[in-house]
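Entry 14. Two folds queued back to back today. First construct below, sequence then structure tokens.
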Amino acid sequence: MAASASHISVRKIDGVMRVDFVDRNILDELNIHQIGIELMKAVEAEFRPKVVLVFRNVEHLSSAAFGTLISLKGRVESRDGQLRLCEIQPRIREAFTITKLDRLFAIHDSYDAAVQSFS
């Protein structure tokens, strides 16, 4: 796969998988599906993955994207790993609160805070 086709940037930093979203708008069904595939592949390569999703660049997120995040959380936990979300824009953070997904996901203000929360 060409790097330019990727919707996420994955880097391993001190044992933590940092995932940054390339797209500002995660709305298109096909893109969401592709992001899901890329995320699952990254997680499958790890045992006990520590994953931080960084939403700094994301301005819009569709409800289908929430479904992908829920699936990812299940996959990470099935591999005895942990998932954190951080740097979520206020508008998107509100959507997490309204849907009560803020109770399902560990959400942090900064990447550093997310990393420090790992047990």
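Second construct, same run, same settings:
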Amino acid sequence: MAEAARRARRSPEPSPEDSARGLDRIIHERARLALVSALAVHARLTHNELKQLLRLTDGNLSVHARRLEEAGYVLCHKSFEGRVPRTEYTLTASGRRALEGYLAHMEALIRAMRERT
């Protein structure tokens, strides 16, 4: 009887639905995932390069980049070339770890779904 009670108290294996809830919500958004992924491949990209690559508006890119910067995933470097402002973004070590963790989580979720079918 005690063994049955112990088994009932153990939490079951998390379902894929529960695992999906554990995703990093900052990176999980499409534009932010694309931005972090682009910076994982390129050491540094300008605002205009990212805007063209990701097909985002200036405002949309700025909002997503700011959210990633607040999370510590991206660094924003502002400077001038002559009188023209230049904004460059780089991925931080924390951002790279977050992306790697996100990808590992997604791979585990995919594996779990495939095992269920």
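Quick look at the second one. Residues 17 and 109 are 9 Å apart (CA to CA). Helices lie at 2-9, 16-21, 25-28, 30-41, 47-54, 58-70, 93-116.
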